[in-house]
Amino acid sequence: MKSHAETDADFQKAADSGTEREDATGQKNNDQELNAVIKKLDTMNIMQIVCLASFFIPLVNLLGQILLLVIVIKSFSLSVRVTSVLRRYRYYEYAKISDGVRTKCAVILLSSILMAVAAIVMFIGIAELSVKMMLGGYAVCFVMAFVAMVLEIYCFIRLYTIMNVMDSIVRNRNHPKKPGGRLIIWIPIILILLMFMLSGIGAAISLPIVIQHIKNEVFTEIFMQADKVKRQAEICAYEFNYTDFADICDNTYEPVEGFGWKLRSPRAYASELVDSVEVTSTNAGDSRSGYPEINVTVNLKGRYFPDPDPKITYVGIAINDDIRWRLDPRETTVIIDIQSPWSVWDIR
């Protein structure tokens, strides 16, 4: 029985003799497996061009991610066939490149999965109004996208390296046994790195804007809910001449109403952010200011605020037939700082 080395040598002699004969007649290599692999590589090349182009088009890049996953999955089986063909024709260095592409495809697949999970976490953070969750998800998504993009560029360039040697084999031409062009590989990778750096700068500018928008949405709903109740409390105080409304303008026991005003039960004011709104009233003798007071406390839902008892309390002081509202710092646990985009959920 012949050894592996002897069999390889016999195959190479047959291939060399076939090459000389086919070169002399101008015919191409009729290896069916070789030609089938080349067709697969041509298809893969088109898919990679479409995939890379889609990454730079807004919204379409989502479809590009799906196409990238298809390419990666198909690359596992194709790279095995490519490696087998290259080893048969004794292009061992190129076979190593094919094996390396398969490894990098595994990393791309893992990066894509992590990026999808990070994107879900980021959107949950936006929905839950969690800045930390949103920023953490975005950071992981950004890093994984960068890794996938760099490796995709590398695989795309190496695809042409393999296609060139495959073309030489099918045309029975001599081809260098060792690949070159390492500098050509690093140039686009560096360009991609610069592009992602610019994207990072853009994200650093846009994220505070997004957070500011979230803050505006959060506190706008809270303020609107509080203002509605405060307006009803003012009408209640007006009906009783701004003096004799103690325990009357109060919804903590039961809903109350009068001429043109109505204070519903605290839970009736519940919304996505607000858990309840309580209204209490005291006379001048029992208040801290020495004037009749109405307290409107907006109890916030704990799922959006880390404090165990998040609330905002307004004190309405009845002076000279008017209600003067102010924030009660003693009974407010949420810092209302709309100007700073990073302090949405700061707690006192």
Secondary structure layout plus pairing:
Elements: H1 4-25, H2 32-54, H3 60-88, H4 92-127, H5 131-170, H6 182-239, E1 256-258, E2 261-263, E3 274-282, E4 293-300, E5 311-318, E6 323-327
Antiparallel strand pairs: 1-2, 3-4, 4-5, 5-6
Q: Can you walk through the features of this model?
A:
This protein has 348 residues and is an alpha+beta fold. Helix content is 60%, strand content 10%. It has helices at 4-25, 32-54, 60-88, 92-127, 131-170, 182-239; strands at 256-258, 261-263, 274-282, 293-300, 311-318, 323-327. Helix 2 runs antiparallel to helix 5 (131-170). Residues 7-26 and 338-348 have low confidence and may be disordered.
The total strand number stands at: 6
Going across the biggest sheet, name each strand in turn: 3-4-5-6
Order of helices and strands: HHHHHHEEEEEE
Dominant shape: rod-shaped
Distance between the termini: 85 Å
Q: What's the number of structural domains? A: 2
Multimerization state = single chain
Mean pLDDT: 79
The share of residues in extended strands comes to 5-15%
Radius of gyration: 35 Å
Number of helices: 6
Major sheet attributes: 4 strands, antiparallel
Identify low-pLDDT runs: 7-26, 338-348
Based on helices, strands and strand pairing, what is the structural class? alpha+beta
Q: Helical content, roughly?
A: 55-70%
